[in-house]
Amino acid sequence: MRERIEAALSLPETWPSIRRYFVNTMFDSTFVMLGIIIAGAFNDIPNLRVVIATILSSAVALGISTGVSVFEAENLEQGRRIDEIEKAMLRSMEETHIGRSSRSSIYLIALVNFMAPIVTGAVILAPFLVFAAIDIRTAAWTAVVLAITLLFLTGYFMGRAGKRNPWIQAIRMGLVGVAAFIICFYIESIVA
Q: Is the pLDDT of residue 96 over 80?
């Protein structure tokens, strides 16, 4: 198994795909979770059971959705790349190192992308499991801080990976999260 993962990571397109999809999925998942917190915990009658169930089911649904869509997209793209290599080599690449590495790469990229919303959901769910007995609003505010922190860390990671100033990228992502929270919080207060 380790050899297959190492072979997949040796392909030039694996790391860029993992980074690109992971960042995108973390970003999307965090904003979905913020919306759930706002609608479920900051309304007039907060319901802990609904918040927990919605975060859990949304994380799993997002994981399945993005994992499958990334698998299909990567399967298509890498399949096209292998087809081009096969035409140039005038032979099947199916049972070669390149063919096996390509398949492993597809599974690895999809798995990492599947895990992004699960990890996001687990981090944001934690305060509701820890602080809910004290106060659901305390849990909600703690979850919001964790969500903004996840965005900040994702921005930092993006900045480092892109050889840009990671702090500027982190602050930008954090500010986008704060702005989205304020906008959604205002929408919830109008509708409620």
A: no
Tokens of 173: 């992502």
Burial class (CB in 10 A: 0-12, 13-18, 19+), 138: middle
Asked whether the beta carbons of 172 and 142 are under 8 A apart, the reply is no
Burial of 80 (0-12, 13-18, 19+ CB in 10 A): exposed
Report residue 159 as tokens. Answer: 């900045």
Tokens of 119: 């990890």
Give CA separation, 97 vs 8, 28, 80, 91, 175, in Å: 10, 35, 17, 13, 45
CA-based diameter of the chain, in Å?
A: 68
- Residues 88, 89, 94, 97, CA torsion sign: negative
- pLDDT tens column, 139-169: 999 999 999 999 999 999 889 988 899 999 9
DSSP class of residue 142 equals: H
Structure tokens at 176: 């986008």
Torsion angle (degrees, nearest 10) of CA 110, 149, 188, 138:
120
- What is the Cα–Cα distance from 108 to 8, expressed in whole angstroms? 8
